[in-house]
Amino acid sequence: MNDASIGAKASEAAGAIGAKASEAAGAVSARAAGAADAVTSKASGSAGSVQATTDERPELLVGGAFAGGLLLALLLKRLGS
Question: What single string gives the DSSP state of each residue in 57-73?
Fold first, then answer.
C-alpha cells in the first residue's frame, strides 16, 4: 500500500463515520421533537384544567397569593437576621 491509497481509505472511512453520525443526530433530533410535542400537549391540557378550576373557585388564587406572601416574608426575615 502506498500513502495515496492509505489516505483515500482514511478519507472514505471518515466520510462513512460522518454520515453515520449525521444519521444518528437526525434520529435523536426527531425523537426530541416528538417528546417536546408530547410535553406541550400535556402542558396545554393541564393549563386548561387549572383555568377551569380557578374559574370555579377563585378563592384558591387568593389562598395561593397569601401562602406565597407568607413564605416570602419568612424567607426575607431569615435572610435579614
Answer: -THHHHHHHHHHHHHHH
Cβ-contact 67, 73 below 8 angstroms: no
The pLDDT of residue 42: 67
Question: What was the pLDDT predicted at 2?
Answer: 67
pLDDT average, residue stretch 9-22? 79
Question: For residue 26, which of 14, 18, 15 has the smallest C-alpha distance?
Answer: 18
* Amino acid identity, position 62: V
Asked if 61 contacts 54 with a C-beta cutoff of 8 angstroms, the reply is yes
Sign, CA torsion 62/63/64/67: positive
Contact 60, 53 (CB under 8 A): yes
User: Measured at the alpha carbon of residue 52, what is the angle toward residues 47 and 53, in degrees to the nearest 5?
Assistant: 100
Cβ atoms of residues 54 and 60 within 8 Å? yes
